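Archive entry: two folds, one per protein. Generate the first.
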Amino acid sequence: MVKDLLEASGHEVTTVPDGASALAALEVREPDLLILDFSMPGMTGLEVCRRVKSNPFTARIPVLMLTAEADVTRKVEGFEAGADDYLAKPFDARELRARVTALVRLVRREADRNPTSGFPGGRAIEDEITRRVHLGAPFAVSYFDIDHFKPFADTFGFAAADAVIRNTGLAIRDAVAAVGQPHAAPGHDMDFVGHIGGDDFIVVSGPEHAEAIAHESRRRFRELIGRQVGAPVLERGTFAGVDRDGRLREFPIASVSIAVLAVRPDRWVSIGHLGTAAADAKRRAKQSGGGIILVEAV
């Protein structure tokens, strides 16, 4: 019914039978919108949503969750998994069409540049990676993620958090300029800095200086955090804040985890496959401890 309704509104619609098939389909072709049922065989809509949102190259795909249960708890679970909107069954066809139109319009409007940092995002990042693949020369994709950022934002305020996001982009850009470009051979592509969203950034560069960019970016990030928290806190390595239960505790200061992936175009699969590898590498880098640089080949 949903397929017929949306096709009648002019949308191209593809359906899959379960969550695993949905994730496989995303690696072949990225949609403008993903509609997930809360209850699906094998893998719930929540788990599919979490997997989609953990992949830096599919995270921007808007997710609309459908469910027969309208209680607040289920809605909160959906939003915590990363869902962008929620619709309880039974629903009015006009409301479904309106929500789909709004979500597609939103992602297209925000596709090319992140409003917080001003750096390229979304499709601009994908276009750069795709362009590099077509050139046929090896390149590196470095995935940057700020650790312990939520307690930092909760303690120091949203203004400080926004300043850190903006300055992180600038620090990475300056690190690229200081380390990457001077070592680029004549005629080689300029390195690219993008903002995936939130506290996630990406650099597409030559493989020969990707690690140096990562180390220099980490050094500059520590300096900018020090300007926000002060030298004593930076030296101590922790700050006092209130956790979700309202208890005062010490949190580690924000640091940055970096996963560097060396990409060989002759082994290229898809942007979704690269995103899955990047998300997995970042997860293991964070598990190893803040500030870790992990280098892998894909």
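Generate the second and append.
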Amino acid sequence: MKVLYLFNKVLAKTVEDAENGKGHDSWLFGMLRLRKYGITTDFLEIEKYIPAKLGRLLRAHILTMHYAHIPLFPLFFRYDVVFTSTAYGCMVLKALFRIRRFKWVVLDFNILGTIQEEKTLREKIFAWALSKVDGIVAISKIEADALKKRFPHLSDRIVFLHEATDIDFFKPDQTIPQRNMIISVGNYGRDFDTLIEAVRGLPVEVCLATKLISVEKLQVLPSNVTARLYNHEDMLRLYCEAKIAFIGIEKKDTYFDSVGTLALGEALAMGKATIATHMKSMESYIEHGVTGFFVPYKDVVALRLQIETLLQDDALRTSVGNKAYTFARKALDPEKFAQGVAEFMKNTVMK
């Protein structure tokens, strides 16, 4: 079986680094690990055929993540399965022309958030094309259950698997001392505003590991807040130094959006006492008060209270961090994810 990966972060540099043991392979969604189960995997990117600078321009301003692979569509016929979370434009083409030569499997981060109530033409088209796919891998149980209700004819082709985190890379290092610091990671859909307001006047540093564009609207950051991107090694050090991790989401929990789960997995695997904006999808990863904490959307007071509690209670912070680490080792192992995807491909998608 040949499986083609179409993901925004599955690019030549990402794959090359992972194959050479640099950094982590969380962003590859099991692509390299599937090969242990007799499945050949590959990826395609437009940058393979055009200059990288032009490719970035097309992705950013013309094709976007949903349409970036359309120029490569004829190459899909070399594969048995296309596995993707973003290539909705190509998914529509496959459904429109009733192509059966290759199967289509969606790794679901935000299907219901994308099609919502099918009020716009775009939402209706995407929903129709999704109804024709050959399988869906949901990364939260509540999303899987909701999808089965939305697409009942696909109910036996929808599976829930925890999103994988490279637990051999993201792991605690007790030799690095902690300091009064909160780390918050991510770019898309992040709520940094609430965190900044919640820590005003508190003796704590806040490290936002994000692109500067994500905090541009904040203009001047407080003196105890820094924002920048970090390389893999620096990220590990920051995680180790931080006492608390915060995953703030700039979305109301309406459509089971799974944004933030990758950063959440990293924090749990690092054994951090983690606070997250309550999202239904995250209930598959956090048991409130046990492996982490939820705070309501945009609730500055609740977030500040939870931060103060964790900073003052070393025993609670350590206990929750240890349980988060244990959960990550058991549930978020990429080998477990890869095995689940392989079994789903072989026993469900290809039958």
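Annotation attached to the second fold: DSSP finds 13 helices and twelve strands in the chain. The first strand starts at residue 2 and ends at 6.
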